Structure prediction request, 427 residues.
Amino acid sequence: MPIATLETARIAIIGLGYVGLPLAVEFGKTFSVVGFDVKDERIAQLRAGADSTLEVSAEELHAAAHLTFSSNPDDLKSCNTFIVTVPTPIDAYKRPDLTPLLKASRTIGGVLKAGDIVIYESTVYPGATEEDCAPVLEEVSGLKRNVDFYLGYSPERINPGDKEHRLPTIPKVTAGSTPQAADFVDALYASIVKAGTHRAPSIKVAEAAKVIENTQRDLNIALINELAIIFNRLDIDTEAVLKAAGTKWNFLPFRPGLVGGHCIGVDPYYLTHKAQAIGYHPEIILAGRRLNDGMGSYVVSQLVKTMARKNIPVSGARVLVMGLTFKENCPDLRNSRVIDIIAELKDYSSAIDVFDPWVDPEEALGEYGVSPIVEPETGAYDAIILAVGHKAFQDMGADRIRSFGKGAHILYDLKYLFNEDETDLRL
Prediction:
């Protein structure tokens, strides 16, 4: 069955979050695009020209002249190119949760026609597109892959909050289930990605390439986190060590910290799940994950020891946690490990205020049961933790932030926003 051409492509983007919306906007400048999301409130927001993720401006939405939004699956029937950009989280047991992906596949299966192509961008383990998603498409549609319809894979590389590295400026990996499908997928993305594309030899290779990108970063950060723990015990400033080592041209510029978000703290578990399914127990990857997942507990242990040395009671102490998002200068709360610090402090019967001007209070309450404060109190806190490196916090300056503390208090700077002599603790 002939596949669509660039001239006849009518695109549906399934999922309009941090990945899907920028993609829909770029394609919507030249192609007919239906942006689909199951959340009616998200569709209403986008139709009104606003994006709560702050990834796309009102002007950019307006520039996508051929883009429409819908939460009605019937509006997908006119499309022949489906791109899936839904989340792929992990469950409470660190196992891949393909529920959103399989639901999206079922929705597409209901409107799939002969000659259509389904392209996945969601991060998965190698084999998921062809072994998990394709059977759902076949079951619901009654069609056969590579006979009636085709598959593609082009992993997302969106970096939330990054205004420099955006969709058109990041090289795109592409793959297809047949040579014809691979040609189409590559040409489709090449039409909007100025940085160019890299055509992988198979969908599994493209899936594996994506999942190891963040696994590699996770392990590098785990190494630096372990070094920070060692240097703290040796009473050596970690940042000073990293600056000195960084004078060598090939030293990688990683920094210690909490590892959360929708990618780095999640993707390695997709790879280790697949490895275990084929009888191999990965050691280094899981060791890195354990270390990074334990950093919240380590941070609190360091804080508690320092408070004890300064005769500041921990039980009943008021602690200000500055930052809740998983990274700086964006509103993304997904898999934020700041919540580990909050939970650990609660075990010590401390009273915690969370301050983050980037956060939607309703989302924070729904996601983590946390109600952020509007403004910290002056002279109120026994300890202050700079958990996220928002520019707004850096702009406040150390003196302003210290003014939130009591006469005797601890300022713990996890993000190296200030010099060593301006803080009491650094990671």
Observations:
- The mean pLDDT is 95.
